[in-house]
Input
Amino acid sequence: MERYFLGNNTAYGFVGNYETELKNKRRVILLKGGPGTGKSSILKRLAAEAKNRGYDYELWYCSGDPDSLDGVYIKELDTAIVDATAPHASGADLPKIKDFLYDLASSLSYDKLSAHKEEIEKLLKNKKQHFIRAYQHLKAALCHFENQIALEMQDLKAADIRAYAAVIASGLRKDKKNNAPRRRLFTHAICPSGEDTYYDHLRDKFIYKVSGSAAAKSVFFDELCGLIEGGTVILNPLNPKVTDGFVVGDSVVVSDIGHMTNAVKENVNLCVYDAATQTRAIEEEKNYVMLHTAFAVEQLGKARENHLAAEKYFISAMDFDNNGKLYADILKDVFGG
Output
């Protein structure tokens, strides 16, 4: 079992890789419905069912609320079940052939919900405003991050780093096992509770630990990813155009290894190619990145508060017995029978 984020709160707003990730799956179950309609609960039940049946699977978490799931991918069945509501809306390309759509909003009582229309609209409007402010802070954080990289690049031996990346890439190409399409996932998300990171992609892997400045790692990973087909690109949560890691076959090349310090097999030291002279200015830019990210997290927390408040109205208007019937149908579509 591995945990990822398919979408993230970034400097470019919410960025998701749902369409890219789902287009190559054999079967996709799309769950529609507003907050509190039971999408995450159904996903958790399906994950538990997959575990009970002995299947390997991935959990795709929600960056807006890391206690909730956005999806489950059952590897052996090549089947994904996802929350297909905004901001990660996905359509049914091949209905009843590849894609199966379930509308959990059909379990809602209009009379119960419409009685609180104004309160719900206000809460959802407030939620949207807090997200807007959060993304403004993340955009400011990105400006400082780019300033930091520009300062670091001035004294960087970029050509030597690219040559080093080519050496690592030659070994990784031998480790490649198949021609599966390249995946792009987040293991680190900017969330209402702070910044959450999962390290499941490191388990049982040959780990290359990359150290060096942000600019050095950017040059290294850009070169590495360009030299190898396929694999899984680990995206930077602030700027998803930046690569934070790369998984290919039984190997993973990353800068953040979390608690798995004893699992490192090879160190990729880029510090020897760094000769930064404007260290004080660089540290100032780093501090501004952290400051604006913290402001963004605060706004994301307020957005979640409004979401949870609105969710209570939907929960009180739900017919969860009907959801139980829908779950039974979903179970058949996922596992057969």
Observations:
- The chain has two domains: 2-108+319-335, 156-275.
- The chain has a mean pLDDT of 92.
- The CA atoms of residues 124 and 306 lie 7 Å apart.
- The chain has eight helices and 16 strands.
